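[Automated response] Your request has been received and processed.

Submitted sequence:
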Amino acid sequence: MKYKNPIIKGFNPDPSICRVGEDFYLVTSTFEFFPGVPVYHSKNLVNWELVNYCLTKDSQLPLEGARSSDGIYAPTIRYYNGTFFMTTTNVSYGGNFIVHTNDVYGEWSEPAYADQGGIDPSLFWDDDGTCYFVSNGLDENGRVSIFLCTIDPFTGKKYTETTLISYGCGGRYPEAPHIYKKNGYYYLMLAEGGTEYGHMETIQRSKNIWGPYEACPHNPILTHRDTPGPIQATGHADLVEDQNGNWHLVCLAIRPIKGMQLHHLGRESFLAPVIWDENGWPHVGNNGKIDFEMEGHLPGPVPQPVSSDFCDSFDGEKLNLKWSFVRNPRKENYILENGHIVLKGGDDCLSTPFGHPTMIALRQEEFDVEFTTELNGEIDEGQRSGLSAFYNSDYHYDIFITKEGGAHFVCLGKRVADIDVVVKSCPIDYNGSARLKIEANDEWYKFFYERNGEFVELGKGATTLLCTETNGRSFTGTFLGVFTENGKINVKSVISKEL
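Generated structure:
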């Protein structure tokens, strides 16, 4: 059966997956964005619906003081004996922890912090019910290694000492460890090579979970590191067996801007079929490669075409699950009313380091998109209200309405590293309502405002300056958002659609 990648578009890295009967659940990383760790559901591994988040309360996800691309690192989701478990790392507070629930659509528990360091934790239950906790970390000489202990997944209490079980298979930064058991072997699968263009997935096995482990003779089992093309950085994978006995792998990958080693959509979730050979080793995709169109023995209903189009008129009782915030939102600054949302902005602006700006934002899921909103209400002196193409507090482009000296202006602002300027300002006749639009392609973000019933282009910004590779230490992706600073604004509607 043919299907298309990526299976979950936009900033959705480090996918982890589990199966319960005929249902599959997948989680991804969220870093400094809130709520944390989205939960997706699927019947066929291709069509995914966002159904919940694991971390929806400030007590579960404290992000005060979290730097850009800190916060929540790679999660793992597992199901055992009627309970869902999710383990992850908050690198800004507390380290590794576990939450659980009996209702994947309901609230998850408060964090149980694990007494083992490192990042990228994972859980494995053996046949006798023993729960193992595996993560990466540094050995006594500072070498990145994989560590294992037994644990109470409800409390985080260790039952055994943390033990080094692997140095990986030769690549740098062995991480994202997952343990599986098949035909009497314990398989330890790792991401190695770093999560950039040298990324790869390796696997090793042992008859004893504590090792020693032997490496797969055809490692890496997945990589695009020496393969030029439109899919790069494949790795950080997880395996799942479906109800029909077929195996599948989910992993992250990126779609670089055409002709460049730059990407701004973030690391996305991809799917590949897995076949086990007669010697008990897995073969992934097309000789360790994945494509935009693939064929596999999928479970469930035939995959349907996926659209990234989105429309919100804010007429529900709760905010749509697709909206995200930068760090913990100040809840009093977001008021849902019938047919609009009221945004209240204070001193925290989009460029405030470690700030909590008033903005609702969607992951950008395609290169070619249009993002439109209608704003209503008074604009106060010094207020800024509008749209943002936002990567982080140091890299974003914004079109906004403001008031200076009693006059209204529509402005294009750019924050790139330490440069924060208004590059264009145009007086407008603001009568309490305005429509703004961002149009994006793989080269440019273009910014428009409505004048006399038609959209007029105010200016543009290069996508290359909102890319992971050009803004230093970063692991996320571009969001398109509606924001306000130093004042209140009513947002009547938001429409995002593919072009």
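Summary generated for your ticket: The radius of gyration is 23 Å. Residues 448 and 456 are 5 Å apart (CA to CA).
If you did not submit this request, please reply to this message.
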